[in-house]
Each structure stands twice: as structure tokens, then as C-alpha cells.
Amino acid sequence: MPVVLNPERVRLIKEDLAHGVLQSEVALRHGVSASQISRIAGNRSWKSVPWPNDGSGSVAGGERAAGEDADGAHPPPSEVRPELRVYLRIERLAPQFAAYLSTPVRARGYPPMEGDESLIVEVSPALSIHRIVDLALKAAPDMEPGILYTERRFGLLELHSRDREEVEDAGAAILRGIGARASDQLAPSTLYTDIIERVADQHAIILNRMRNASMILPGQSLLLYEMEPALFAAVAANEAERAAPEATIVDIQMMGASGRVFMAGEGAALRRAQEAIDRTLRRIEGRRPA
Asked: Which among 50, 47, 48 is positioned nearest to 18, based on CA atoms?
């Protein structure tokens, strides 16, 4: 049976953490999940139980193993920190978007399911994405990576879980590990959007030859939306589907220089989807490219 935490148990856990015991070892020693230990170590739960010999209420006041940070992970030996380009929390994956992420081309790891909570991160240089994976999975070992991909300059990662707290713990560990905030990501910008009414037969045929999701039928209308950075197409498609579930996702291009969303359906539904993408992108905080 899982151990039920109480103040005495948490006091012992904090003593171990303050004396430099790795979080993974503390979790095993006390029979609790690594995500629970991460929340205690980050002072996000059980704040009422004081840290030993430390009035700050944080594990930062205790001793740690040499070279270890607050998450039990070792920082990169290089002084170069990864640059955070995209940090996206996607709540409750919509059914079509989840199915798209689960295709063999996209889900090279664990396929997500409808309703999962998702975190998508892009960093530069590309290989630094492996530091991101390490930080996330050591903080929340039950998280499932769906995409781990490196292109010429950037690396990207998609993680998902049914447990929202696990996703938040993994995200917090990533940000702490690279010394960044979510708002340090690049701000999205819209490059082009349009709704083409009643697509012609030949146009539908050539679109269907290039699609990675569902088909567009001749006579349906087509929503086009292009943005950068490319990964913002992920949250755009999910929010568009939630706003217009009767519309059909034809394709999502979320890797490369820019991101693109193609949706088919009736004009009114596509206008709702377009407005949802507009609102979503405007709400995202970030920096402008230098």
C-alpha cells in the first residue's frame, strides 16, 4: 500500500534531503513517489513542516551532494545554458490532436491519449534537449515522452501525463534546471491566416496527398493558419479543435521554420477555430526575437 504522508514522515524526508540524499533515493527509502518528493523539495507542499537547521523553509538551506542542484540533478558542465525557445502547457488534449500526436511519425516514444496534459519544450542548441529530458524525468519519473527530436539547430520534447501535477513538476524542474522562466520563451507571431470557401475538387485532391491527418472533402471550406515559432502550431490546433470540434484537422506542421494548421469544415466552425487560435496566441507571454 502507498505510504500516507504525515508531519513526522515529512520531517524525516526533509532531513534526508537536507543531508544531500538524492531525491530518487529518498522516494525509495520512504515508499512515496518521486513527484511527491520533488514537491516537498521545491517547497510546493508540506510547507508547515520546517526544514532542519534552516528557517528559510527551503531545501536550499541544507547540504547537498557536491555539484547537485535542488532537483537531485547535476547541472551541465559547460557554462552555456540552453536557450528556451518554446515552453507550452497544453491542457486536456483534444481527440483529433491527440490522435495526430499518436501517429507513428509523431509519437516516436509513448503515444498520448485524449484528455492527457501535455508539455512541449523547444531549446537551442539542439542536443541540449537531452538535458531537458533528464531534468523532467528525474523530477517526475511517471511522465511519458511522446516526441524527442533534434533538427539542425533546435531540439524539441513533448511530455504527457494524466496527472496535471506531474506535468507541472516536470515543467518546474526544467525551468529551474536551466535558470529560465516560462516567459523567457519566444512570443508567437502570426504570419498568415485565411479561410478558403468551398475548396475545388482538384485542390482537395492535392491537399489530401500531402496531409498527415484527416481528409478534406471537395466543397468544404479550409482554414489556413501559419505562425512562428513552428511549435506553437501544437497549441493552436488543440485550441482550434476545442472551439470547433465538428471541424476536421487535415494537417499540422509543427517542426521547421514556421508552424501551420489546416482545418476543414463549415465556414462558421472554421471562423470559431480561427478566433480561438488568435486568442490563444495573444495570451502567450514571451520575448521578441533579437
From this structure: 50
What does DSSP assign to residue 53? Answer: T
The DSSP 8-state label assigned to residue 107 in this structure reads -
pLDDT at site 32 = 82
DSSP 253: E
Cα 37–Cα 40–Cα 46 angle in degrees, nearest 5: 130
Q: In degrees rounded to 5, what are phi and psi of residue 122?
A: -130, 135
In the chain, the percentage of residues whose pLDDT exceeds 70 is 87
Is the sign of the CA dihedral 23, 25, 30, 31 positive or negative? positive
Cα–Cα distances in angstroms (integers) from residue 40 to residues 53, 59, 92, 115, 137, in the given order: 16, 9, 26, 27, 17
How do residues 27-52 score in pLDDT, each as one tens digit? 877 888 877 888 888 788 888 888 88
Identify the pLDDT of residue 104: 65
Give the start-end residues of each E strand in 28-116: 83-90
At CB < 8 A and 24+ separation, what contacts does 61-70 make?
61/18, 62/14, 62/17, 62/18, 62/19, 62/20, 63/18, 63/19, 63/20, 64/20, 65/20, 65/22, 68/20, 68/22, 69/176, 69/177, 70/41, 70/42, 70/176
Q: Which residue bears the cell 511549435?
A: 231
CATH class of the structural domain 189-283? alpha beta
> Is pLDDT above 90 for 236?
yes
Q: CA angle at residue 213 from 158 to 201, to 5 degrees?
A: 155
CATH classification number, 83-184, choose in 3.40.190.290, 3.30.70.1710, 3.50.50.60, 3.40.50.300: 3.30.70.1710
Q: What residues pair up with 176 in beta bridges, in sequence order?
A: none
Q: Where are the beta strands (DSSP E) in the chain?
A: 83-90, 117-124, 144-150, 155-161, 189-196, 221-228, 248-253, 259-265
Cα–Cα dist 15/208, whole Å: 60
